[in-house]
From TrEMBL:
Entry keyword Hydrolase: yes
Gene Ontology molecular function: hydrolase activity
Xref: Pfam families: Abhydrolase_4
Region entry Disordered, spans: 26-60
Leader sequence residues: 1-25
Domain of life (superkingdom): Bacteria
Domain (Peptidase S33 tripeptidyl aminopeptidase-like C-terminal): residue spans on this chain: 415-507
Protein family (similarity comment): Belongs to the peptidase S33 family.
Name of the protein: Alpha/beta hydrolase
Presence of the UniProt keyword Hydrolase in the record: yes
Key words, A-Z: Hydrolase, Signal
Amino acid sequence: MQRKTLSLTVGTVAGLAIAVAGALAGWPDEDGGGDRPVTAAEKRARMAQEAEREKQQERAGLHWGDCPKELAAPRVQCGSLKVPLDYDDPDGRMIRIALTRMESSDPDRRRGVLLTNPGGPGYSGLGHPALLAKAKLPEEVQAGYDIIGMDPRGVGASSPVTCDMTTEQMARGNFPSFAENAAGVSAEAEYAKTVAEQCGKSKTAALLPHLTTANTARDMDRVRAALGEEKVSYFGQSYGSYLGSVYATLFPDRGDRIVLDSNVGPGGYDVRAFRLLARGMEDRFPDFAAFVAGKPEYGLGRTPKEVAAKYEDLAQRLTRKPVDGVDGTLFRGISLEYLFSDARMPELAKLWQALDKGGPLPAKPPQATSDNLSASRSHVLCNDSRWPQDIAAYQRSAADDRRAYPMLGGSTGNITPCAFWPEARKQPVRIGDKGPSNILMVQNERDPGTPLVGARELREALGDRTRMVTADQGGHGVYPFGANTCANDAVTAFLVDGKRPEKDFACKAQRPAR
């Protein structure tokens, strides 16, 4: 199962059981009652509640129906909801937010609604409930919730934005070129400025100021109200961890159980988080180097050190002479993205083999991005926070990051369209510790997309509102895709029974079942 990833280039034992049991011991059972049978009176009450929710949805103009073929899945329905484009003018222009609902697999055990976000920004979330089910989301979670997918504003079927990207720009992807020196930053600045100007002059430019994480969080609360729910639970991955943090900050009393998986820092995908991608690559690459070194048939190095040297050799050679459209920058970006999942390591090794031999590639890499993905991503990143506008600042950051994180730092330290964004930035939402203690963070120790260092910063910012469970494994995304049952069980216990650890804890490494 390939999970959603960052919108960068392409486009996922008995001792442990005892440890989990020990960690869970003493946690309060908020629901009580265990698995006792549902009484007739409780069934009548639930039917009355469901009838009232349906009336509220009718009043809000939220109607559910069959999904188009590409979204069709068991128990999944599609709908949409009108929300204000500008929350400072709530009676003004409205836009439609596209939604999916995967209904509870057992209405007698339904406890509420679970809103979801797969990351991005820029990714469609409509198919995410069905994807989670296919990834073996535990049955008790599927029974406990109606699971909601959503295309955030500006994305997919929710009033999509454009930057009028050309075919060449889409093939190039969202990653800045790898700047070998100050001149490389100056050259990238011309490209970044062009993209920013295209976004500001596109046919959807009127939406540009209003695509922010804060406004998406406000849309989520409109969805909550339209569903007739006093509170909602939430499961957000990657960028979705920031969206969940913002929702918990803006609407602290309307969140039920909030799970944040693969966490960015409290500033969201700001310039610091973008630069930390290079740190994530350095954290994760040793896993791949050990995997390749252990398989001499790949011919890419007999030791992890030799594999790292092969990476740099390929990056330099492809910069001078691309192979089948893959240059040095794209090679670096593809390598990062394939490291999001252990399952893709063999695929990445075979790609390296083909590039080392000058081609042909085993499979042509898919188009790096789409116009809507690139546009919506830029809109949110550039609107959410203040990025430096001085080219010299990026020349310094690229130089610093090349030294600190040589595998990717020349790209992540380079300039982006946010430096030339045509709209004044909004005041960022300040993530803090005010509000109920109803958040659980879960994080891989060697996550290339959202490094552990950023997750720790978010953990500190949220204070007693959260607890954090870390897993000694690599890759991007813990639940339910990862192999670590200790971490997975902790999330399931929280979503199903409200059981959350009293303190942060770390799950030991676990080999995936064969």
